[in-house]
Structure formats: structure tokens, C-alpha cells
Input
Amino acid sequence: MGRSASLYICFFFLFCCIYTVFNLGKFKKHDVIAWDRAGYYLYLPALLIYDDLDELHFISHIDSTYELTQNNSKYGLVQIEQTGHLVNRYSYGVALFELSGFLIAHTYASYSQKYPPDGYSIPYQLAIQFTSILFSFLGLVVLRRFLRDFGIKETLISCAIILLAFGTNFYYYSAFEHGMSHNFSFFLCSTILFLTNRAYKFEDWKYFIFLGISLGWAALVRPVDIFFCIIPCLWLGFNMAQLRFLKRHVVKILVLMLCFLLPWIPQIVYWKLTTGQFLYYSYSEYGFDFTNPQVWKGLFSYRKGWFVYTPIAFIGFLYIFVAWRKKEYRNYAIAILLFYIPYIYVVFSWFQWYYGGSFGSRVMINTLPLLAIPLAIFVKDVINLSKIKKYLIIAVVCFLVVLNLFQSWQYNRGVLHWDAMSKEYYWRIFLKEHASEEDRSLLLGR
Output
């Protein structure tokens, strides 16, 4: 296989996502910037068009015009008694990714006689879609570069990229649903892996600086992603070599920590402006119940189980333990396993462990780059099997990839329910194009 095969796969993925955008035409229905996606995006029109970050007087008119939240114009906004201001529940981390697309769309709309430059017309809808797709694509490209740096062969890289890009729910959030945080977090996770490996390999200042910014940005986009800090801290394993590396580069690590704070400065200023506090918990009544984590449901439930709807991730996760047994991958396996243990516990301790409407467990998408090396090891093991076993496993894996693509289509069509999946309903509509009313009677709560 050629040295650029995996890059061609990334470009094919990009093509599939762009084709889906124009095939579905969600931008024409103003169906892109809505609900949580509207909250992530809100900073851009509020600051750059309406100059109204704290009162958001424009939002009621925009919501009634475009039905962002079915006329629930206060969705994701919290009224602060002390200041009288409205504060956005969501951080500005996703909006920072969307800034370039927004500026292009606003420039076009400002000179166009066809679309109003109001931040929500069709050019802006398209901009959000293309920006999301771009960073999904870049996430795969950076991940590919990391795998090459790590010494993984091109054939294995190509197979791992195919499995992650087309065999997981990363595909759905890249091709069908844009503006959510998950594909941006996927990009940041890939970047953190790439920069961590480079920082340890070359010990260059620039890698420590950009790693600090990437870690801070990841925690800003999704605060629970602060656990990504575990990975660079344990890159050499849980041993004295790791401790000696950290001691040798203590000044660089202090600079890294300062760089971690850089993306947070605008957010802290925003909170001070709107709430009067430098630090503010914007989810108010929503939170975690660490005494009652729903880990089993989060991983294996038919409602939203990560491994049920993304079985490729289950293979990758199991192969972390296989990697542990191989000397050249042991330290990496230790680092990501010690990341996953607290991460899984925390994310499935959220009061709503299934996280509302989603295809599978969307909160685990940002961690998928961590499974690229285990999946590459899996592919290598399969290649070395006898012919019958090899072809049988390849057939099963290909089926799982096709199943993911089909279920992405099912979810987009409403056959897979966004919130109320049950075991009985799942198997009733398995590989079906339509769901009858009798089928839907098997949904949770029916």
C-alpha cells in the first residue's frame, strides 16, 4: 500500500461528508444552528454582529424567525439576578473553531442581496457545516501524522483510519450533524497525541507551548476533557523515567501550564462581565452524581451504550490490554487506560447519563483517536491469522462498518430513536428502513 493511502482515505471521508451536506440540504431548512448547536455558536453573532454579549436582545427575534429552539428563546441561557444579565450556558470553545467560517459567511452575506447578514441565514448555516467537516477531516489527518511518527506502518494506519472514520459514530457527527462539540474535540485529542509524542521525542519548546494551548482549549470545549492532561503526564508510563523527564523539563512544563490558561482568559472575562464572578458554573441545577454512576448503562445499554452502537470502539478498547502486553506499546496503553478509568466514571456520573438526543454515546467520540493504535494492533493480528480466521474476522469487521453507516442513516431518518431506544425495539428495526407504529410501541416510555 502506498505511503499516501491513508491520506486518500481522509480525503474520501471529506468528500462523503460534503456530499451528505448537499444531499440532505439541512442548511436550506435552517436546521443546522439549533438547540445546543445554537448555544455553542451564539458568541459569534452576539459579539461580531449585534455587539450584545450580556443582554442578547436580538435572540428572541432570531429564534422566532429561524426556530432555533422552537421559540424557547431562553434555552441554554441563565438569568443572573445580581447583574440582570443573561449568561450563555456553553463556553466559547466551539465558537472559536467556527470563527473563520463565520467571517467568510458574514462577508459574503454583507455584500449579497439574497441573504440577510444576521448570523443565521443560509451562508452561516453552510459555514457551520463546512467548518465542522473541515476539523473532522483535519482530526483524521493529524491522527494519521501521529501514527506515522509513532512508527505504525501505512497499511495499519489506513485500516485504523477507515475503522474510526466510517465504523464509529464520529461519522454521523461529521456527515449528518454539525456544530456540536464532539468532532472539534476529536481534532483536539488527535492534536494532543501528536504534540505529546513530539514533545517527548524532540523536547522542543514549541511542542510544549502548543500542547498547553491544546489541552486548555480541549478543557474549554468540554470541561471533562481536562482528563486529557493525564496522557502527557504518563507518556513514558507510570515509572521513574516519566518522573525524570518531568523534572528535567520543569520550566517548560510551567510554561505549558500558563499556555493552558490562555484559551480560558476570554471565557473568564465573559463570566465576569455577565455574572460578576471570574469563575461560574453555568449548568446551574444540572450536575454529576458521583455516588450513582451509570457506567454499565453508558457502555452496554441499548438506550445509548457506547459499545452497543459503536462495536468498533469495543474492539479498540479491548486491544488496549493487548497493547499493554507488547513492550513497544506498553507505556501508551498505560497512559490511555489511566485516562479512560476516571473519564468513563465521570462522564457517566452526569445526571443524564445518556446525554439527551444522540446517536450512540456522543460523549465518547472525542476519545476515539486514543483507540487508533490499539485498532492498528488488532489489524496486524488479524493479518497474521490463518486464512479462514482472517477472512471471517474481516467479514465481521466490514459488516460492523457497514452497520454503522446504515444506522447513521437510520438515525437521521428517525428509525433509530434519538432518546428512547430499547433492546426490543433495537432488534425489531435492525437493518430495517422504516419503523411501524407497532414497532415504536416498544420504545422506552411507550
In short: Residues 74 and 153 are 51 Å apart (CA to CA). The longest helix spans residues 122-149.
